[in-house]
Amino acid sequence: MDLSALEALQKNSKRSYNDQKAIIKKVLAGRAVSCKVCHQPIMFNMANQNQPAKVCCAQGCTDIELDIS
Ligand SMILES: [Zn+2]
Q1: Residues 68, 53: contact at Cβ < 8 Å?
Q2: Which of 3, 45, 57, 68 is most buried, with most CB under 10 Å away?
Q3: 64 CA to centre of ligand 1 in angstroms
């Protein structure tokens, strides 16, 4: 196991977690955020029987579940 690779991976996932939190905050504040992949607007979706509340774009490449408990 290459430890430095593992550390880089952990840093990356932490950064993307912070990015996701920033996106959620902006969307919930009513600000326009566009998906980095498809450049479509990211919307807030209320929870329903089938899925938790999340923010996602129309294409689904940005799809972040809100960890509200
Ligand atoms: Zn997208």
Answers
A1: yes
A2: 57
A3: 11
β-partners of residue 55 are: 44, 64
Parent domain of 10: 3-65
Lookup: tokens for 45? 């979706």
pLDDT for 2: 81
CA 56 to ligand 1 center in whole angstroms: 7
Q: How many domains does the chain have?
A: 1
Cβ neighbour number for residue 39 with a 10 Å cutoff: 9
Tell me the per-residue pLDDT of 17-53, one tens digit each, with 9 for 90 and over.
Answer: 898 999 999 999 999 999 999 999 999 999 999 889 9
Kindly give the distance from the C-alpha atom of residue 37 to the centroid of ligand 1, in angstroms, as a whole number: 5
